[in-house]
Specification:
single chain, Ribosomal Protein S5, domain 2, 2 domains, 24% strand, binds (3R)-3-hydroxy-3-methyl-5-(phosphonooxy)pentanoic acid, EC 2.7.1.36, magnesium ion binding, magnesium, mevalonate kinase activity
């Protein structure tokens, strides 16, 4: 029996356009998914398509037990965390000998296959390694996390489907390529600016607001997400934007220590769920078997 866990994430900048080779910045967060895998002759097909794909790809048979602190279908990377933790547990239980890097690559293959072929390595990479990461095409880097990144997440409690939102953007690219590509170029520009301002919360907040507006223009916003980002900004956040695929799911707000509680309260007043969390720097890790 082997038990591994992997963290969730927020995409700070660059979701959607990262699928088309533009840069993105993501951060692992404390809530985790824990997966136990046990060698077993009696293989029962798992309910999750991500877990099924992990077993198919590694060609082993076992039983799985999942415990999650992450809400699913909310843009906090629960499917990537399940995939990463499952693959590490399989690797351990069946002594497959993959390195951390290789497990991360396999996790990306699983996500891509399950998302209909369109995905970036953002979620799986950040869940594997933890910390703050930069992704652009095949370039993946860990960044030095800024000292005072105080964030509040707002879960709209509206579930979204990542594959559907990714397809929506692909459709805009087919029907209006000039508009779609223009918006994605702008998101890429905002993300690169953010890279140079990671230690400057005021400027980062302005860039978050711009990124949110561009995602709205791309068609992945939602009235409740707009309400949440406005509420967070009015409560004193430096900036706020949706995180992940959009169409529901979560927003994140960058706060000073002093405004954190006010921002969380404003999110609650919108009947959404605030999550005050911080960066996870460990990534996937082995847990004690229970
Ligand atoms: O729904 P999430 O949080 O898993 O976000 C997916 C992020 C996208 O950029 C929309 C897709 C991807 O694979 O990067």
């Amino acid at each position: 029996m082997a038990t591994w866990s992997a963290p969730g994430k927020v995409i700070l900048f660059g979701e959607h356009s990262v699928v088309y080779g533009k840069p993105a910045i993501a951060m692992a967060i404390k809530p985790r998914v824990q997966v136990t895998v046990r060698h077993s002759r009696y293989y029962q097909k798992p309910n999750s398509p991500y877990i099924s794909e992990c077993f198919r790809l590694t060609d082993v048979k076992g039983s799985v037990y999942v415990r999650s602190q992450l809400p699913s279908a909310s843009g906090l990377g629960s499917s990537a965390a399940v995939t990463v933790a499952t693959l590490f547990a399989i690797n351990d239980e069946f002594e497959l000998g993959y390195t951390r890097e290789e497990v991360g690559d396999l996790a990306f293959e699983v996500e891509k296959a399950t998302q209909g072929g369109r995905a970036s390595a953002t979620d799986t990479y950040v869940s594997t390694f933890g910390g703050l990461v930069f992704i652009r095409g095949s370039e993946k880097r860990r960044l030095l996390p800024p000292q005072n990144l105080s964030i509040v997440i707002g879960n709209s409690l509206i579930s979204h489907n990542t594959a559907e939102m990714v397809e929506k953007v692909a459709e805009l690219r087919r029907t209006s390529p000039v508009i779609a590509n223009g918006i994605m170029d702008a998101i890429g520009g905002v993300t690169m600016e953010a890279m140079h301002n990671l230690e400057n919360p005021k400027e980062l907040g302005v860039l978050m607001n711009r990124n949110h507006a561009l995602l709205d223009a791309l068609g992945v916003g939602h009235p409740v997400l707009s309400q949440l980002v406005l509420a967070a900004r009015n409560a004193g956040a430096y900036g706020a934007k949706l995180s992940g695929a959009g169409g529901g799911g979560c927003i994140w707000a960058l706060c000073s220590k002093g405004s954190r509680n006010r921002v969380a309260g404003a999110i609650e007043d919108c009947d959404a769920r605030p999550i005050t969390t911080s960066i996870d720097t460990e990534g996937a890790r082995r847990e004690k078997d229970e």
